[in-house]
């Protein structure tokens, strides 16, 4: 399948436990073949984590990926585990076995009666992706642009590449055969990646890099090109773009693919799957990336094909009510167990009402048994404490001794703790192994323990150490006298030119964050501790700003009152003067020089701005009232720097926009800075629009100087009165979560959370700044 995406994708999740309200759905799958009138369903699930060749790096989560997807297909989408699903894991997934299984699916489709309902087929691969040189003759020859075919790497592959690899051309031929009847729906899921740029992070990347060089077009031989587009009824989902890599994701003591972890969460959590299109699915996944602590700069999943078709052909029978089964926690009546967890969207601090029967949820006169507050979340289960409400206060409560089972419905969703959780790692001198250690471990220098003493009279405690077995948000890795910060999940540098470390610096620290391109030197703690602290502040501030923006956008159902739009500019230059002669919404990803049609969604199709391109921003008010908003636009780069785009001068008053008005700011040109002080401009960026009814000075969130509120003397944000309760304005939220200003203890929860607070609104656009293709090939 020839696309601008490399074959990649990374699948994961955990087991979706049986839920009572799905019994009615699953009972229909128990019918025999003659009675079953449901559309035929078939799946081929392949996971290769342990390879035969010792030269190929093994992967951690491929089996988990397959098992999780298998469970979702059975419990949610009605696949029969024995009849409909072929599973090949590790040594079962040889090249021959994979090809035979693909042919088996083709034959099953061909054998269906002509009057059979349209069938659904899923092909899923989890493992390494790679490349081999294109075939110059035969049915699979297609003359790709770079002379290379992308491949899936089976169990018995060899590191240098051979015909054992499953080529993208074979997958395309498989898709054409499956969809030959023009009725069968095909969903291809590729949980792998291939060559990209330097990745940094602590989890593995599913790529087997064979160091193949692109073949110049002048050396291509003329061949009969095969069909390289997807059939009309096919959809392909990739974990990331061609220049990115897909990392693994630690969760609940297991490792999963980043995409798969959040894919399965969406499929488990969404109540109306029958209304979930593939483009909406990717939008949901991207939104969860932004809200998660561990995915500060996640790769961008990509979908191609029939984007507006419904995921897995789901019908209304797959939809589920908005409640979770709740069980007694042994003999304890002050706590309960919910049969849903992080993979279903549950989070610590969220609040539920507990009912005895599900029909009571929809009965306005029915009294709930109690309130529940989630206190602990695992992959598929959660524990909640039982509470009773008196006016605005909540106290501990005990359920009746006879309580065994109930049904919980969410009343308030808590997006999680804004504190940064720092995990410490130590590189053992003798073995070179990297082990997680606690802050109290004797190998951790005493000076580093002072990092966690961040609370004071003027600051909240914004940093905490990871507990035993917990996956943090960031890692501080110590090797001898040096240390460096890493994201917990792999991070893509998007062709950024990183400063080179000295050769004397341990290789275990390369690719991490340090000071001025060098790791932190622990031999000078008085100098180093402030450096680490400021680096952690930069990351935490930028991460929380992204989360605040995405949370509010989610509460507005992704339809903010004032929205932000990236525009492509057509510019003519005459006598050294640039004139804008055209403007259009920026929708292009596959072709970096031409925009695509307007029906491409900006979140499912990530925006790519290439070096030397011209662009600007449109601010569009969707309101019909009379009150204006004050507008500030901030931009976050891949290294967590925050820049003010509007207003132009730091400290200036925000610009006003009135209902129905559209403003343009720019234009801009993406250029590379030069010189010793030049900043890297390439990589992921987040442009954030903050709009408030009252005057704001959010430009002070810039991180160029990392202002210290206790010594700077003036803080424009402090003009907003800060109350000792839950944040009620954007200014209060930003004070606590990005400047860490003490606001006292928060109450147990807010009495009622509106869909969004009309006194402020937020929009966020993620895009990618890319160097020119010529430059990429030279690096």
UniProtKB/TrEMBL annotation:
SUPFAM superfamilies with a match to the protein in the record: Caspase-like (SSF52129)
Gene Ontology cellular-component annotations: cytoplasm
TM helices/strands, residue ranges: none
Domain Peptidase C14 caspase: start-end pairs: 41-285
Start-end of Polar residues biased regions: 585-602
UniProt-listed GO biological process terms: proteolysis
Annotated protein name in UniProt: Caspase domain protein
Region (Disordered): 582-602
Superkingdom to which the source organism belongs: Bacteria
Species this protein is from: Rubinisphaera italica
């Amino acid at each position: 399948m020839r696309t601008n995406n490399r074959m990649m994708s990374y699948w994961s999740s955990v087991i979706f436990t049986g839920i009572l309200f799905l019994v009615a759905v699953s009972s229909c799958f128990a019918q025999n073949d003659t009675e079953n009138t449901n559309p035929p369903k078939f799946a081929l699930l392949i996971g290769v984590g342990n390879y035969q060749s010792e030269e190929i790096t093994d992967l951690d989560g491929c089996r988990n990926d397959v098992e999780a997807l298998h469970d979702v297909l059975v419990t949610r989408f009605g696949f029969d585990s024995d009849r409909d699903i072929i599973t090949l894991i590790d040594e079962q997934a040889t090249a021959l076995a994979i090809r035979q299984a693909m042919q088996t699916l083709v034959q099953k489709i061909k054998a269906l009666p002509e009057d059979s309902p349209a069938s659904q087929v899923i092909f899923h691969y989890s493992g390494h992706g790679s490349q081999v040189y294109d075939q110059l003759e035969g049915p699979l020859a297609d003359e790709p642009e770079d002379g290379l075919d992308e491949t899936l790497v089976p169990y018995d592959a060899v590191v240098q590449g051979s015909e054992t690899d499953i080529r993208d051309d074979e997958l395309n031929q498989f898709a054409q055969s499956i969809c030959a009847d023009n009725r069968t729906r095909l969903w291809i899921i590729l949980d792998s990646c291939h060559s990209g740029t330097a990745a940094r992070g602590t989890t593995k990347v599913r790529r087997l890099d064979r160091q193949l060089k692109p073949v110049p077009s002048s050396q291509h031989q003329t061949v009969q090109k095969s069909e390289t587009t997807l059939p009309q009824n096919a959809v392909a989902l990739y974990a990331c773009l061609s220049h990115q890599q897909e990392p693994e994701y630690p969760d609940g003591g297991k490792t999963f693919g980043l995409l798969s972890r959040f894919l399965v969460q969406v499929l488990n959590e969404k109540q109306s799957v029958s209304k979930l299109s593939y483009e909406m699915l990717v939008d949901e996944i991207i939104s969860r990336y932004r809200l998660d602590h561990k995915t500060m700069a996640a790769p961008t999943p990509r979908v191609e094909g029939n984007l507006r078709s419904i995921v897995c052909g789901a019908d209304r029978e797959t939809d589920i009510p908005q409640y979770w089964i709740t069980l007694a926690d042994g003999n304890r009546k002050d706590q309960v167990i919910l049969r849903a967890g992080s993979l279903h969207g549950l989070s610590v601090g969220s609040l539920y009402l507990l009912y005895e029967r599900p029909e009571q949820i929809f009965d306005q006169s029915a009294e709930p048994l109690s309130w529940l507050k989630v206190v602990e979340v695992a992959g598929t289960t959660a524990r909640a404490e039982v509470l009773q409400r008196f006016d605005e206060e909540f106290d501990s409560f005990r359920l009746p001794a006879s309580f065994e089972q109930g049904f919980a419905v969410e009343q308030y969703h808590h997006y999680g703790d804004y504190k940064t959780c720092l995990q410490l790692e130590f590189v053992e001198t003798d073995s070179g192994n990297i082990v997680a250690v606690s802050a109290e471990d004797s190998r951790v220098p005493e000076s580093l323990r002072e990092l966690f003493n961040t609370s004071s009279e003027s600051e909240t405690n914004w940093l905490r150490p990871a507990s035993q077995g917990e996956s943090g948000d960031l890692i501080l890795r110590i090797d001898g006298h040096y240390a460096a910060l890493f994201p917990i999940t792999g991070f893509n540098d998007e062709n950024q030119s990183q400063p080179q470390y000295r050769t004397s610096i341990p290789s275990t620290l390369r690719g991490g964050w340090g000071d001025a391109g060098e790791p932190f030197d622990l031999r000078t703690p008085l100098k180093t501790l402030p450096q680490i602290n400021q680096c952690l502040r930069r990351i935490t501030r930028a991460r929380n700003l992204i989360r605040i923006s995405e949370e509010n956008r989610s509460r507005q159902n992704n339809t903010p009152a004032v929205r932000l739009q990236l525009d492509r500019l057509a510019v003519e230059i005459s006598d050294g003067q640039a004139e804008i002669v055209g403007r259009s919404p920026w929708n292009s990803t596959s072709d970096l020089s031409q925009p695509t049609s307007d029906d491409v969604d900006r979140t499912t199709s990530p925006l790519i701005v290439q070096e030397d391109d011209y662009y600007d921003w449109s601010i569009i008010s969707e309101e019909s009232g009379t009150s204006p908003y004050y507008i500030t636009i901030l931009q976050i780069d891949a290294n967590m720097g925050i820049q003010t785009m509007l207003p132009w001068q730091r400290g200036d008053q925000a610009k006003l926009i009135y209902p129905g008005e559209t403003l343009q700011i720019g234009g801009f040109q993406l250029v590379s800075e030069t010189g010793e002080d030049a900043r890297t401009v390439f990589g992921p960026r987040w442009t954030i629009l903050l709009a408030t009814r009252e005057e704001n000075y959010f430009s002070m969130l810039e991180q160029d100087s990392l202002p210290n509120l206790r010594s700077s003397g003036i803080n424009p944000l402090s003009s907003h009165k800060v109350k000792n309760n839950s944040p009620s304005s954007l200014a209060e939220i930003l004070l606590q979560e990005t400047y860490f200003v003490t606001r006292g203890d928060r109450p147990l929860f807010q009495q009622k959370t509106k869909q969004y607070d009309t006194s402020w609104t937020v929009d966020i656009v993620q895009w990618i700044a890319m160097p020119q293709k010529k430059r990429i090939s030279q690096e």
